[in-house]
């Protein structure tokens, strides 16, 4: 059975984000094929996709390597987020479906409950799902794709600290959801812009100015999981 290139791409991208493949390290097709249990063909296709996304660069005499973003490039990502996330919220207010709204309300309800209980370790994935659902509710595949890629690259370059006031943090999500439910695009945009601005202080670069990585990561071999959805 031929493994889809998008599954290999997801696996390599996830390992780059996790730091398994360090910044600047070579990505050899043969080694990657063995690591993920696939042939070299889907690996080659995956590397082309990841190069287009900015995770991989091709260097003369070295071939494919993990990109080494600068601090300025990392800062640009957060600035871009301040523009795109409010736009997505505004569009979601105009284009969301009842199914989107049901998921958003469910996430807010669960997030507020866990924030009050102090179970902060469960809040980060919930916040990610909220932003992902809101992006899909915008009804714009191109914008959704941009926001998805933006979140992946921010996760690669930054560590996000837990918010100091999780209850207030999730109250902001609740207010955004209320504006989306009412179809108030201007308010949804303004509330999301404020939320993004306040949350920016929680982002810390994963790499030092000298190029070193600030986190210890694992480097265990694993096969490609073709059963799960592409992220």
Walk me through what this model shows.
This protein is mostly helical and 231 residues long. The protein is 63% helix and 6% strand. It has a two-stranded antiparallel ribbon. Strands 3-4 form a two-stranded antiparallel ribbon. A hairpin with a 3-residue loop joins strand 1 and strand 2. Helix 8 packs antiparallel against helix 9. The longest helix has 25 residues. The protein is elongated, with a radius of gyration of 19 Å.
Which SSEs are present, and which pair or pack?
Layout: H1 5-18, H2 29-36, H3 40-53, E1 56-59, E2 63-66, H4 71-95, H5 98-117, H6 123-137, H7 141-157, E3 158-160, H8 166-182, H9 185-199, E4 203-205
Antiparallel strand pairs: 1-2, 3-4
Order of helices and strands: HHHEEHHHHEHHE
Tally of alpha and pi helices: 9
Quaternary: single chain
Mean pLDDT: 87
**β content, as a range?**
5-15%
**Class by SSE composition:** mainly alpha
Low-confidence regions: 210-222, 225-231
User: What is the gyration radius calculated from CA atoms?
Assistant: 19 Å
The level of helicity is 55-70%
């Amino acid at each position: 059975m031929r493994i889809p290139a998008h599954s290999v791409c997801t696996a390599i991208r996830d390992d780059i984000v996790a730091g398994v493949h360090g910044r600047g390290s070579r990505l050899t097709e043969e080694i990657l094929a063995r690591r993920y249990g696939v042939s070299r063909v889907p690996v080659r296709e995956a590397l082309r996709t990841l190069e287009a996304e900015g995770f991989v660069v091709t260097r003369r005499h070295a071939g494919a390597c993990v990109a080494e973003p600068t601090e300025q490039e990392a800062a640009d990502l957060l600035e871009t987020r301040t523009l795109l996330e409010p736009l997505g919220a505004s569009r979601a207010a105009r284009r969301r479906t009842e199914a989107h709204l049901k998921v958003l309300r469910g996430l807010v309800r669960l997030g507020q409950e866990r924030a009050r209980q102090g179970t902060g370790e469960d809040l980060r994935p919930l916040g990610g799902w909220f932003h992902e659902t809101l992006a899909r509710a915008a009804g714009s595949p191109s914008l959704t794709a941009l926001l998805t890629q933006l979140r992946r690259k921010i996760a690669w370059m930054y560590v996000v600290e837990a918010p100091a006031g999780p209850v207030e943090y999730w109250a902001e999500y609740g207010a955004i959801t209320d504006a989306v439910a009412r179809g108030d695009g201007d308010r949804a945009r303004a509330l999301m812009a404020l939320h993004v601005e306040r949350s920016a202080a929680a982002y810390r670069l994963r790499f030092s100015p000298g190029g070193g990585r600030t986190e210890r990561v694992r480097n265990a071999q694993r096969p490609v999981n073709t059963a799960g959805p592409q992220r």
